[in-house]
Amino acid sequence: xNNLHSLNIRVFxxxxxxxxxxxxxxxxxxxxxxxxxxxxxxxxxxRAQKIVNGLDITNDYSKKNVLxxxxxxxxxxxxxxxxxKKDKNALQAELYKHHFEFAADLSNYxxxxxxxxxxxxMTYGVVPKTYQAHLDMIPTLKEHEKLQILNWLKExxxxxxxxxNSKEKHAWFGKYKxxxxxxxTKQGYDLKxxxxxxxxxIEENKKK
Length: 208
Prior knowledge:
Blueprint: H1 2-23, H2 38-53, H3 60-84, H4 88-106, H5 112-121, H6 126-137, H7 143-160, H8 166-186, H9 191-207
Helix pairs in contact: 2-3, 3-4, 6-7, 7-8
């Protein structure tokens, strides 16, 4: 019985060590380039490379995988759009079905901050630019108001990141900017006056 008990312990320890050593191993992410136009693939990889270049990834293996994950995301969005473009409801359902896997795949190699950078890179940096513009335009914004603006912009980005082209991406942000403006007006801000004051400060700073 003691020998059996000892054997079970050794087996358990061996399996535990195997799990420890293999759980951190991630396979190479392949580029989904088969049967695609070579120039199109080159364009998408170049677009993905620009995003990766800003992430400060020091590990070449992780860098390559992140590059392929981003490029593959563009491919998938294009494939979905081509397949369901005549049925908007089916299109949105398919996009939602695959929406969360992108960030999940990136999380194997990137921090939350870096994933945010990827999302901003795929949506023209609208979130940080628009958020900063609101802070500059209305210096008296309260902290909870700043947070609400940022959350809505990030919500818009989740839709925009799945949009098929730049026009559709900007349309999502436009929709949420309208929501933000209406909400700020209800909070008592005179946006026309705030905007005029902002432009005046910009001109004054140019003269300095």
